[in-house]
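Model: You mentioned two targets. I'll fold them one after the other.
Researcher: Yes, keep them separate.
Model: Target one:
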Amino acid sequence: MASGNDRSNSAPDQAPLSQFLDNLSIDDQRLLSRLLNSWEKRDQRKNPRMPCRIITEFFVNDQEQKGVMRNISLDGAFIESRHDLSVNQHIAQSFFFPNFEIPIRSNSKIVWIASRGFGVQFDFVQRDT
């Protein structure tokens, strides 16, 4: 019968981490757990995101698509969309801020994908005049 501490089936790159954790005292394990929990909850973005609901049109592979920005910052946004896109893909998007008559245009790069949409980093933002 295998014991709970048998690490022979774990991946080789996980062995040093497992050994490190096994050698920590209970108090150190609790401290590490608290630090990791507080770190996980921090927003690590340079510019905080603000919730929004802004319809955006974007072009990808010469096809026009639509989505809804659910949050936005100076650096990027999360776009709710069901389109099949990939990380590092570039899009050209345009959107209107509420009560603005001039569209905002951006060349953006997809930096992460989720089941409900994707996160973009603005490469270039232009305001039509």
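Model: Target two:
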Amino acid sequence: MLITVIGRGHSGTRAMSHTLSASGVCMGAQLNTSGDLIPPEEMYEACRVFARHVRYLGDLEWDFSALHTMPIDPEFTRLVESFLSSVLSSEAPHRGWKLPETTLVLPWIVRMFPEARYIYWTRDPRDCILGAHLTDDLSDFGVPYEHTNDLRLRRAISWKYQYDLMQSTPSPTHRIDLRFEDFILHHEASLERLQAFLGFPLARIDVGDGSNIGRWQAAEGQYDFPFFPRQTLYEEVPV
């Protein structure tokens, strides 16, 4: 079984990666402290190959339609398979990986690995954009957009792009949607759902007390943007 975690950087995906590792899933030969499969450079380059086929429509809208049907660029396939070599060659019954930049190429990942188990991971964007991440400037990965010097807005645009890309991708056969906040505040119920989806027992790790939920309430500057869908905001903030 192949498993991957799909979610933007700073969405708390490390909690999921650490849970899978603690549960005996082979997450690759080398991981960093965030549970990312490294070195990541080949996946970064695969993101740039993918982005050549993204068409920017203006006003923070992109056309992804060609990516769902066009032939996958052979260079992309080579880069991804090389990046995942330690996962794909493993004889472990359960294998997988986590790298936030995988979200930037989701349509072609789903087409390359149609039978994989996909964990779609989301977090309140108001918290997600408070910290710096490598994907903050989409142009670093070849994605066209109207660049801004407003750092918080740039992060918000990156969040929107990745959310829109996830929404536009035809749903894989095996998919579960999890929220970071539920995984922390309703940990046991979330794990039971995930165990039923994956079909094997999961380890319980320390996920904290929820103090990292709703950090936007104490943040300076702008943290909310009109293009954040209301259903992505999480209101059950611990007191």
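Researcher: Noted. Anything on target two?
Model: The chain has one domain: 2-232.
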